[in-house]
Amino acid sequence: MHKHLEEQVEATRQFLSFQLAGEEYAIDILQVQEIRDSALPTLIPNSPNYIDGVLNLRGEIIPVINLRSRFGLSQNTAQKNRIVIVVNVAGAGKNRLMGLLVDAFSETYDVPLSDIKPAPPGISIIDDEFIIGLTTVEERMLILLDAEVLLNSNELSLNINENIA
Question: How many domains is the chain partitioned into structurally?
Answer without folding.
Answer: 1
